[in-house]
Every structure is written in C-alpha cells, then in structure tokens.
Amino acid sequence: MPRLSDRICTLNDAGSDGWEVFYRAREMVAAGERVIELTIGEHDIRTDASILEAMHTSAMSGHTGYAMVPGVRDLRKAVAQRVEQRTGVPTKAENVLITPGGQAALFATHMAACQPGDTALYIDPYYATYPGSIRGTSAVPHAIRTRADNAFLPDRTELATAARTTQAKSLLINSPNNPTGTVYPRETLMDIADVCKQEDLWLISDEVYDTQIWEGEHLSPRALPDMAERTMVIGSMSKSHAMTGSRVGWIVAPKEAITRLIDLATATTYGVPGYIQDAALFALNAGPELEAKVAEPFARRRDLVLGILADQNTVTAIPSAGAMYLMLDIRASRLSGRDFAERLLDQHRIAVMPGESFGTSAAGHIRLALTTDDAKLAQAVRELCAFAKDLSQ
C-alpha cells in the first residue's frame, strides 16, 4: 500500500498509548472473568434518565439533520452564561464553539495555537492523549516534569525556561488534574499566567473536571488579569453530567479564534448532532443540583479510600482536591507502577492504571479511578494495600 504519513505513524511516539492494562482487563471481562475495574474515568452511574428523555424527544421531533457547525445557538448561549457566572468574565455565544467532546477540543485548540513544527508545552503527569493530540497537529510536544512531593504542581522557573529555550507557542494545563487529582491554587495559576504573558504563549486550559472540587475552589485562568485574550478553555458534558458517550464539549476563546476554529470544524467534524446538543442544553438548564448529584459519589468514595489508607503505612495518597481519581504512591512495593498494575491484575483481578501511563513524573505510582460501587472499591483498596505490604517485606 502507499506510504502512510509521518504524522499518523508517530502519534504514539513510544509505541504505546499507555492503556495496555485497561485493554487486558477488558479482554478478561469479555472472557467471563470477574475483574474490579478502576481504570478509566467512566461513571458507574450512567447518564440521568431525564437527559436521555430530552435526547429522545428531540430526535423524535426531527432534530436529526445537520446542526449548525458552531453549535446550536441556545446551547452556545447556555455555555457562555455558565462560564460567565462561574468566572466573572464577560462571555457571549460568539466566544463558544461546541465540539464532539473535549478530545476534539484538545486537537482543535492546538491546531489554532501552533504552526507545524512549533513546540507545545504540557505538564507531566498528563492525560494519556495529550502528546498524541499535539503530534496530530504537526506540533512538537514537550513535557514539563513535576514532583510528587509538591503535589505535581508545575514550577514557574521551569515553565519559563522551557518556554524560552523551546520557543514554545502554547502551554496546556489541566486543573482539576487527571491523573493526579491536584487542583491548581491561585498562586500557581498566577505564575502560569505570568509566564504565558512574558513568553507570548497561548494557554490551553482543560477544565472538564471543574464540577469535581473536594477542597478549595476552581479558578479558571481565563479570569486572571489580561488572560482572556490568550486563553482557550476546554469544557465538556462528559464528567459534569455523566455524558461521556454523547460526545459534547466546547471551546471558550476570543471571538477571532472561535471564528477560525469554526472553519476547522467545518472541514473536519462538521459539528455535533442536534438532538445530542438539545440534551446537553436540557442538562445545563437543570442547574447545579444535577451536577452535584453526578459528583457526589466521587467525593464520598475519595473519603472512603483515604480512610482505608490511613489504617496502613505502605501505600500513600498524593493530596487530591478534585476529579474522580486518586494517585497512589506504591514505591514501597519496590515495583514500578506498570509492574505493580500488571501483577495486581494477574493475582487479584483488580485493574488500575500505572502512573507511567501518564508520563515519567508519576513512575512508581498508580492511578485509582473511583468508578465502582463503594463495597467493591473498599474491597479492592484493602486487597491492593495488602498486596503492596507483602511485596515490601
């Protein structure tokens, strides 16, 4: 066959997408084995029935044809209103593009920010698709490492040095963070904003977990002084409303950037189905009560796991202030995160994600998704801790 492009052949530069343990666990489940899956950020409580009913009603009413590529006007207005209420930054429908989930928004924002060959910065640990998304736009991904003993917060000096030496054009951040659960405090975001202004960077802020805050508060960097003009915010219905499979996300950005991003959407995704957008509009109009209902199990399960961990001293948790994950330090086991996860799956039928799936900074850690019922989660964590203790002796 004809030669494939370097762009597509190098999406997974290391030859791995980091999801091997997840794929193997799913194969075991398909073969009839019982596995406690704590891998991906997929709600165990599915999309609320009222949202599905709104989707069904819209589809049956005929909203199944081509929808407006930028998004249904009322949904764009609702997203703008939600963002303005939460951040205090004036936001209009013209600042919003509806996308097929947050993943499409990641790709689109880097297409907008970077020329082919430009460097795009991102923080390590990172969501597993980040480097591939950047490579897919023909930009060059450059990870900035962080440290577990500093809750995986980025260092201002290291950010500035990386931006300057690579002549980067963008910086991608994620708070609340997947995989670590870290919520960036105001001081960290101020440092990030200063670096972006000094080095003339686009800031791409992935805020899909903004409704899952357990300690402190969520601050969008777009709300900081002089940052609205250089920030593109990624949002999504996936985590806030348990609509992962519906694929509804958005970009909030300066009007000129949105205009160009609409051109990109016209040439690629051609928008999001109208009946799904109508369901998203219904969900947003349901207000914060529905969002709180979706988030509550993860707050409860976080406390449950932390209580179990407090009764032993082999496995420790990185401070988690948000999102549906806990990052656990298992270095006392003398195994890498990858080896620990593989052996835990083989010997105990418990599936977790190795820290190494999310970069090098989280080596010797595992990510625990709080995505199964309380009893199974408690059982899994107790077995995990006992497994780590046996290895450490």
Question: Can you describe what's shown?
Answer:
There is one protein chain. Helix 3 crosses helix 11 and helix 12 packs parallel to helix 14. The protein contains 14 helices and twelve strands. It folds into two domains: 145 residues, Aspartate Aminotransferase, domain 1 (Alpha-Beta Complex), CATH 3.90.1150.10; 239 residues, 3-Layer(aba) Sandwich (Aspartate Aminotransferase, domain 2). The model has no long low-confidence stretch (mean pLDDT 96). Strands 2-8-7-6-5-3-4 form a seven-stranded mixed beta sheet, sandwiched between helices. Strands 1-11-12-10-9 form a five-stranded mixed beta sheet, sandwiched between helices. The relative contact order is 0.17. Helix 6 links the parallel strand 3 and strand 4. The chain is of the alpha/beta class and 393 residues long. The termini are far apart. Helices cover 43% and strands 14% of the residues.
Describe how the helices and strands are arranged.
Layout: H1 6-9, H2 20-30, E1 36-38, H3 49-60, H4 73-87, E2 96-99, H5 101-113, E3 119-124, H6 130-136, E4 140-145, H7 156-166, E5 170-174, H8 186-198, E6 202-206, E7 231-236, H9 237-240, E8 249-252, H10 255-267, H11 274-285, H12 288-309, E9 316-317, E10 325-329, H13 337-348, E11 350-354, E12 365-369, H14 374-392
Parallel strand pairs: 1-11, 3-4, 3-5, 5-6, 6-7
Antiparallel strand pairs: 2-8, 7-8, 9-10, 10-12, 11-12
Helix pairs in contact: 3-11, 4-11, 5-6, 7-8, 12-14
